[in-house]
Design brief:
Length: about 260
């Protein structure tokens, strides 16, 4: 199983922050990272819709053009933080899949900004993590393929197979596994798109059944909810989007206890 070996500062960390969607919001990113560093965190794990390397940032020369990714990389270096993220639907999938993999199997944007490909596993503080990003853009009817959304965004059966069946402690997904109640009315999702989205959620449910994690962290639906997977002891935490009180939680790596976190 993969372990984080390149960055000494992440060994023996007692707790990490788990973050919901940020959508490339620079102000929220600066606020969260400053508070996390002040409060002693070393690692942040993000469930996707981070929106790094977006086409208008001219990857791979994003540092020359500035923007969200360049500012995030600079903050992580200045504050001494490590940032691991899965992909959401509003992420630049071609750019993420083109990233070189480091020794730990992460796509490396920088030494501190690490993309966890679908099916990737790693350990941190003795906790077994897995990533299964991706979701169906429920707003794709208002966008353009290749600019606002990408065909690679949806979870496919091969992603579930890549994750495997070995047990996990924590699964990081972007969409929410089927079986967890959501307030879909807040998103005003057309019925046809809701059906397409449910295919992804069903695949995530299969992944959870295969790996039986104690915890799942998801986002995508812009609401803060928790629930138990039917017939399982797996608790799913759905995180809200940027600037919302439910965007961030603390995960204690020794107990797997989860507490709300406010970056103030």
């Amino acid at each position: 199983m993969e372990t984080l070996t390149q960055l000494d500062m992440v060994h023996e960390v007692p707790k990490v922050l788990i973050a919901g969607d940020w959508h490339g919001n620079t102000g929220w990113m600066h606020q969260v990272l400053a508070c996390a560093a002040r409060d002693g965190y070393k690692v942040i794990i993000h469930v996707g819709d981070l929106k790094v390397l977006w086409p208008d940032e001219y990857y791979p020369d994003f540092a020359d053009y500035g923007g969200f990714t360049a500012e995030l990389v600079a903050d992580l270096e200045r504050l001494g933080l490590v940032f691991i993220f899965a992909d959401g639907n509003h992420d630049a999938h071609p750019a993420l899949r083109a990233l070189p993999l480091n020794a730990d199997g992460f796509g490396a944007i920088s030494d501190r900004l690490l993309y966890a490909p679908r099916g990737h596993r790693w350990t941190l503080g003795g906790v077994r993590f897995g990533a299964l990003g991706g979701a169906y853009s429920i707003d794709r009817g208002w966008g353009t393929e290749g600019r606002d959304w990408f065909l690679e965004e949806t979870v496919v059966p091969e992603d579930v197979a890549a994750l495997g069946t070995e047990p996990l402690d924590v699964l990081i997904s972007h969409d929410v596994p089927a079986g967890i109640d959501l307030d879909e009315g807040t998103m005003d999702v057309p019925e046809a798109i809701e059906r397409e989205s449910y295919i992804v959620r069903s695949l995530l449910r299969e992944a959870v059944r295969n790996t039986e994690p104690r915890l799942v962290f998801s986002g995508h639906w812009h609401q803060r909810r928790t629930g138990l997977m039917p017939g399982m002891e797996t608790r799913v935490h759905v995180l809200d989007k940027e600037f919302k009180a439910g965007n961030l939680v603390t995960l204690d790596l020794s107990t797997l206890a989860v507490e709300e976190y406010k970056p103030v």
